[in-house]
């Protein structure tokens, strides 16, 4: 059983998938930073909100959560919130990842098409057939003998 698992784990596809997952996780971190640290402050400036991820609607308040200003502070104080700003951040991050993947896949397909469209190399010139070679050998032997 261990041998079968080892064969499965060491196949090229499995290793490629593992590398893809690790790179995908790193890519996700970069996109999250892009959205949270670069893009959303610009969107917040345009819409006038100090922190876009802190946009929420108070659904249920407790005595302690009434004075809370941020989403996390409100939730920590026992309040229930409809956090649409966090959802918008996540949705924009998703769109950026989807766009980046589309861009990469589109270019890979373009490269594949170029390879497929490349003319096939000319076939090597055909040499004499077996019959022709045997005939030449026969004629040489007759000439010697």
Query: How do the strands of the widest beta sheet line up side by side?
Result: 1-2
The backbone outline, from C-alpha atoms, is elongated
State the helical fraction.
Answer: 55-70%
CATH superfamily: Large-conductance mechanosensitive channel, MscL, domain 1
Number of domains: 1
CATH topology name = Non-ribosomal Peptide Synthetase Peptidyl Carrier Protein, Chain A
Task: Summarize the helix and strand pattern as letters.
Answer: HHEHEHH
- Give the overall pLDDT as a whole number: 82
Determine and state the CATH class. Mainly Alpha
Report on the architecture of this protein.
There is one protein chain. By secondary structure, the protein is mainly alpha-helical. The chain has a single domain, classed as Non-ribosomal Peptide Synthetase Peptidyl Carrier Protein, Chain A (Orthogonal Bundle), CATH 1.10.1200. 68% of the residues lie in helices and 5% in strands. The chain is built from five helices and two strands; from the N terminus they run ααβαβαα. The protein has a two-stranded antiparallel ribbon. The radius of gyration is 33 Å and the shape is elongated. The N and C termini lie far apart (69 Å).
